[in-house]
Amino acid sequence: MNDQTSVDPRLEACLSNWDGILPDAYANLVDEERKRLINRVNTQVNQVAFKKERRDYWKNPSEFFHDRGGDCEDFVIVKGVILHRLIPNLELKLVICRMIGYLRRVHAVLCVVLPDGEVMYLDNLYHAYGADTFVEYYEEIKRTEWPA
User: Fold this and answer.
1) Sheet holding 129-130: strands in order across?
2) Which of 10, 22, 59, 61 is at a distance of 20 to 30 A from 70, taking alpha carbons?
3) What is the CATH number of domain 9-145?
């Protein structure tokens, strides 16, 4: 990207799936509409390929779309950028966690806190899910506020 305010054309193309969104177009959604939109973003981005990286490099959305994929934290970044653009008043958090079970791999998911306090987790491995399901599959290591 050329400057901090420009949006990569590939990200714009992805956003165009939501009717050419203006930042405030979804500001007044009711809870169920907001959840449906969040689920659509999660499903849409999850259609991009997962690509294991040889080194731990966090791609920006431009690199993600150019490479046609990335690993778990790259999915978190893209979903966070899209959701921040669509619904700026959402509380977003990057969650680093460890999978429960024999693999115990480190993983990253996007935590979305809705205005009513309900929590949704967006994962590149599964559909969006709530806090009860998160604790069933993951052990949280670190939670970081989404950069403004």
Assistant:
1) 129-130, 119-122, 106-113, 91-99, 138-145
2) 22
3) 3.10.620.30
